[in-house]
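_Per-residue structure_
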Amino acid sequence: MDLMSSTSFVLNNGVEIPALGFGVFQSAPEETVAAVTTALEVGYRHVDTAAAYFNEKEVGEAIRRSGLARDEVFVETKVWISDYGYEQTLHAFDKSAQKLGVEQIDLLILHQALPGEFDLTLDAYRALEELLADGAVRAIGVSNFMPEHLTRLLAETSVVPAVNQIEVHPYFRQSELLARDAEHGILSQAWSPIGGITFYRDGSHGSTLQDTTIGEIAAAHGRTPAQVMLRWHLQQGRQVIPKSVTPSRIAENADVFGFELTGDQLAAIDALDTGVRGGPEPERITRETFGREIPEA
């Protein structure tokens, strides 16, 4: 695959997904229509949302307003833990599809594992398998699943997830998990691919955007730190979903296909890993702590 020009990956079931997606995590509903509209205008063709972001309706609205044909935009969303269970998850599909205004969802994934109630997680995934068999979705997957969660899921279900969407950025690479995904032909999707504004609140680590190593590599290519980080993911075979509501940044993050990092530069970025997770610990996800009702469409 020519990574200089390749703008898509092929999932393990043969479905093609754009290499670059647009994320809307923490985008307020009122900002989401404008942000997704801008993203589609500058060339993004994959939008990643979730039931728990409460902005699926706005994503659907922006896609409709874009005038693009339905099959030109790859739509991904996630089932929240409050809707796990076989029948509940089938209904979660209906809620998301109605909010998005689509009949078929390109990629539907489970937002988290429920380690303490893994049977519910398995029932939810079996509902995804059913939706896949029925053609309601084109691909299914998971998010924030750790190696032990994948091991159990693979042992007890029949469809290997097409993706595992996980926190990956230069300060938190999750190398073991990336290797496990690759071993099973699961595409790793990087959320917070450029380090995220929500992380390192304790001040122990600055922003990746100010990192001197990344800054030097960016200067060498005449690129921005954000572009270098996205390029790092793409060259290592990860799909990325940068999030922004700022038009200039949305465009900047899309311009990542005209240059190539060297092996030494990729290794230098790998070496920045601190092992410190920014998001919640996957082992601590419970319905009691993180449950929230997902409204009807």
Observations:
- Residues 8-274 form a domain with the TIM Barrel fold (CATH 3.20.20.100).
